[in-house]
Design goal:
By secondary structure, this protein is of the alpha+beta class. It has a single domain (21-32, 42-158), classed as Beta Barrel (OB fold (Dihydrolipoamide Acetyltransferase, E2P)), CATH 2.40.50.140. It is 37% helix and 28% strand. It has 5 helices and 5 strands. It has helices at residues 2-15, 44-65, 67-78, 103-110, 114-119, and strands spanning 23-30, 86-91, 96-100, 122-134, 137-150. Strands 1-2-3-5-4 form a 5-stranded mixed barrel. Helix 2 (44-65) crosses helix 3. The N and C termini lie far apart (70 Å).
């Protein structure tokens, strides 16, 4: 009987996922030249084609073709983020992360433009309460602050230059 209880306790400990604590992330809004976050803002036909492809070969088939993309898309689908708005942030530690949020929070960030921020020598500072999905992907639980401050708005990555690869 004691062995049975011990096995049950071990299985419960293994099977229970730890509750991830919310954390605070701070960083500057950055602009990517190519956005590959999800299907937000894309034509409905693109999402429909994804579902048709997924239904025809399944995630296992997708993993054989492109394991990283399939893992990423499954993670988004499992967390209801396939059509959720997102932004890129560069943290104080110079990490580029994706921050998914609801539409209302996104609207408070959507009106900033890269050209205006550059012209005015400003950047957008974001502080948010988040839950981590993976190392560089977070879901915003609450935007704590969005402030325009003096500074340089940097692109997430520099533009592609052929000269860099010669």
């Amino acid at each position: 009987m004691k062995a049975f209880l011990l096995i049950v306790i071990i299985l419960l400990n293994i099977g229970c996922k730890p509750i991830k604590e919310a954390q605070i992330i701070e960083g500057d809004l950055c602009y990517e030249w190519i956005k590959l976050g999800n299907f937000y803002g894309q034509p409905d036909s693109l999402l429909t084609n994804f579902y048709i492809w997924k239904d025809s070969i399944g995630y296992e088939g997708m993993m054989k073709e492109d394991s990283l993309s399939a893992y990423y898309l499954k993670l988004l689908e499992d967390n209801d983020l396939l059509v959720c708005p997102y932004v890129y942030i560069i943290t104080d530690k110079r990490r580029r992360v994706l921050l998914y949020m609801n539409s209302a929070e996104y609207e408070s960030l959507n009106h900033f433009t890269y050209k205006e921020l550059i012209a005015n020598h400003q950047k957008v500072r974001i502080v948010a309460k988040v839950h981590s999905l993976v190392d560089n992907m977070f879901v915003c639980k609450k935007l704590i602050s969005v402030d325009v401050i003096d500074g340089v708005t940097r692109p997430g990555r520099s533009k592609f230059k052929i000269e860099d690869y010669r």
